[in-house]
Amino acid sequence: MKLIRLSAIILLITTGVLTSCKKDNPAPFVVDAGSTAIVQLPKDTITLTGTVISGQTANMHYLWSLISGPSNATIASNTAASSLISGLIQGSYVFQFQATNGNGDIAVDTISVAVVSAGIQTLSLPIAPLGFGGTYSFLPDQTISADSAGKGSYLYMSAWTVNSVPTHGKTYLKFDWSQIPANATILSAQLELSSLTQSEFTALTNGATTDPQAGTDNSLFVQRITSDWSVYTITYNNAPASTATDQAIIPQYTTGTTTIDVDVTTLVKDMNATNNYGFCLGLVYDHYYNQRAFAGNTFSDASRRPKLTIRYQ
Length: 313
Hints:
Blueprint: H1 2-21, E1 30-32, E2 37-40, E3 46-49, E4 51-54, E5 61-68, E6 74-75, E7 82-86, E8 91-100, E9 106-116, E10 121-126, E11 136-138, E12 142-144, E13 154-162, E14 165-169, E15 171-173, E16 186-194, H2 198-204, E17 220-225, E18 242-250, E19 259-263, H3 265-273, E20 279-283, E21 290-295, E22 307-312
Parallel strand pairs: 2-9
Antiparallel strand pairs: 1-4, 3-7, 5-8, 6-7, 8-9, 10-22, 11-12, 13-14, 13-21, 15-20, 16-19, 16-22, 17-18, 17-20
């Protein structure tokens, strides 16, 4: 009987020890860097956000890093859970999200970002409003601009005389393409102009009876303007300079021609790479009694106003 009683006591003690040592296993420390992402050029940025799935504590620390890719992308806030990534180019990137919790545990996850080539996009632009438009300038120092007579309803290039006074007309116009990304590739650019008829020209000029497309030598140049200007202050004497580099040519007027399409691709590429101050149009040869007139940026028929169509990717 004594032996049996001792065994029971030992069994009771052992059971008690096993029960007191039993503990719950803590949740594993897990993070998620996000799902595979695709960026289409010309966009070159993406925001990545890491998430702690389990094991979060107070005093969390994060770290974003680039594991691989075709360029050294810029991580704006590499110690934040969410960060803007910029400077991406075509190719595949792998970014790592690392988190350290208050217990010193570390968890990592990666995300792949595929940057693909841009689809071709087309943007048709009217002349930039308020402050920019067409103007023709008389010599000496007389100007009709968008806020006075004509109100930009026609564009005029000429070498003529008015009451025996020599006049020389040029047009200055600008299009706002600020919505095109800075890193976009310009594929083509076309300037569209609409020639005025005799009756339209007479109405817009308060009675001028000369042919708006007069002359045997009225071919035009389209040049890139090289400094800033305002349609409200421009005159013949203070007009901004333009450069003949990469200029486009509008040939001599042909009877019956209404719409003029001008390839200005190289000019737009130059302007996109430097500054967009607009275009200057004038006679190639400043010989008297030649002129050209086009619908302007406030012409009554909006479909005939100057338009710049840019294709880019």
